[in-house]
């Protein structure tokens, strides 16, 4: 409540979020919590991006498939956690909501913490985005923010292009993580996280999980699990 010169009182009004707003993270959060339930927005490099309605084939279905692949990895890897569409406080200019995050829990030595108000703070070890209409953001400003903040691996499934981009962080820069000679892409940060990209793009989920199970049975995955437990 504020008192005006005429003596009348008026309420402070919190402005709504709008696409293209340039805000600090604190102001973004203040406006975000005042928005109607169900609103989804991200702050990327100080600019607000409002999400459009999500379609089934171009987002919902591939999101579920990628989530299932990462969830199966989590089940077999104590100390590793997945999170779906969570708000991540990266820095003062970036508060994205990645489609999926794979992180090492703080108790196991991960690089994120959970804030008192239950948000992730810091850079998850791996972030995955399902990209149809948001390719320019996901491979532009968002990629820049993830790279600078220390997200160690970044996956972008470009659904309409029938392609998967997988990047790993080396010396502060993202490099392409390419399939090995057998066609399998193997994570550098998460040993045993193996992906048959062709099978994923062709909808052969049984093959995707079979390849993952091979990774989970590998000696490097066992060593990784032991390191997390210690």
Through-space gap between termini: 54 Å
- Unreliable spans are 1-10
- The protein's oligomeric status is single chain
The CATH homologous superfamily name equals tt1808, chain A
The CATH architecture name reads: Alpha-Beta Complex
* Beta-strand residue percentage: 25-35%
Category by helix and strand content: alpha+beta
From the alpha-carbon coordinates, what is the Rg to the nearest angstrom? Answer: 20 Å
Helix fraction, binned, reads 25-40%
How many helices? The count is: 7
Average pLDDT, all residues:
91
* Apparent shape: globular
Q: In CATH's first tier, which class applies?
A: Alpha Beta
N to C succession of SSEs: EEHEEHEEEEEEHHEEEEEHHH
Number of strands: 15
How would you sum up the major sheet?
6 strands, mixed
Folded structure, characterized:
Helix content is 30%, strand content 25%. It has 230 residues and is an alpha+beta fold. It has a single domain, classed as tt1808, chain A (Alpha-Beta Complex), CATH 3.90.1570.10. A hairpin with a 7-residue loop joins strand 14 (184-186) and strand 15. Helix 2 runs parallel beside helix 6. The longest helix is centred in the N-terminal third of the chain and has 20 residues, at 56-75. The N and C termini lie far apart (54 Å).
SSE blueprint and pairings:
Elements: E1 2-3, E2 9-10, H1 25-33, E3 41-44, E4 47-50, H2 56-75, E5 80-84, E6 88-89, E7 100-104, E8 113-114, E9 120-121, E10 126-131, H3 135-138, H4 141-149, E11 153-158, E12 163-170, E13 173-176, E14 184-186, E15 194-196, H5 197-201, H6 205-216, H7 219-229
Parallel strand pairs: 6-9, 10-11
Antiparallel strand pairs: 1-2, 3-4, 5-7, 7-10, 8-9, 11-12, 12-13, 14-15
Helix pairs in contact: 2-6
